[in-house]
Design brief:
The chain has about 130 residues and is an all-alpha fold. It has a single domain, classed as lambda repressor-like DNA-binding domains (434 Repressor (Amino-terminal Domain), Orthogonal Bundle), CATH 1.10.260.40. About 65% of the residues lie in helices and about 0% in strands. It contains 8 helices and no strands.
Amino acid sequence: MMEFNDIMQDNEIRKAFGLRIREIRKKKKWTQKELASKIDVRFPQLNKYECGLHAPPLTKLIQLAEALDTTLDYLLTGDRTEEKPLHNIRLLERFIALEDFQAEDQETVIKLIDAMIIKSKVEGAINPFEKKAS
């Protein structure tokens, strides 16, 4: 199984990722410097992300998605799938219970979920024909 960093070693994946960042940034009419300041990197580093020369660390990837008001899924795969309704009652109950958590704990849970989603998407992109274990 390949990890996020292994996937982002692929030039084509990095370039497509960078183009998606640039596309959203330009739609928001932001400069690279403006977006860079929102995610706390220098603009030359952001330029390297947009050009597909470097991949951001996972924490910066999450910050990019938040700053650009998009999903990690879109940044990584280009998938703009509409949100799906939540059918698993147990998950819904857990999400409701999280509302009572402190903001820091909520953010930790969100980052964990985001990381699991990225892992699943990356695995799906690597092995699109393998069936997932039930």
